[in-house]
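Class, look over these structure tokens:
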Amino acid sequence: MSQRRTMVQARSKMTRERVLEAATQLVLERGHEALAMKDLVELSGVSNGSIFHHFGSRDGVLEEIFKRERRAYLAYVSQCTLEHQGDPCEALGEGARGALMFQARDPQRYYRLNAQFSNSEWLREKQTMWNDLAADIERPVIEWGMPHFAAKRLPLLAPALIQSLLLGPPELVCNQWRAGRIGGQLADHADTVAAYVTAGMRHLRDMGNGAG
């Protein structure tokens, strides 16, 4: 690769990062629906034409932000799940704990860059992108779970349903905490969330295995 081409690629990467950093700051302040191209141009110092060259549209910028943040969130949840040794139902509980702890690091960032996107009309219009991203991120956990499903150590449920049962409780707890309906620090409730998800998975497993 020529030195010139290397320099061009480096500048291109730097430009993209400047745009994404500025867009992230604006979304954190105002929410994704309020992101305006004129504000993005002003804050990033990158021209309107260059932004469209790199991302195609305003939606292209938002899509990159969402993918980056969602991937970081779900990758951490997967890591917490896969690192647990022992009962796989407990491992899913640890994944739920990880989800809550991730949110507790910066609740406002999680709210703006994960939760608001996930509950938006914007994402519903990009279902294919969301399905492809989710499938890619979920793959390591599904591969980990296959022998456990076969041995009946986990309830035999669709991966999307297991993910919903794992992520739902921590996300609901975070919502209620943000609304001031749950006291203390958000991280204080991690043990409860982990225990709840673990117990639920064990119950579903035992039902499927014929336990009374």
In short: DSSP finds ten helices and no strands in the chain.
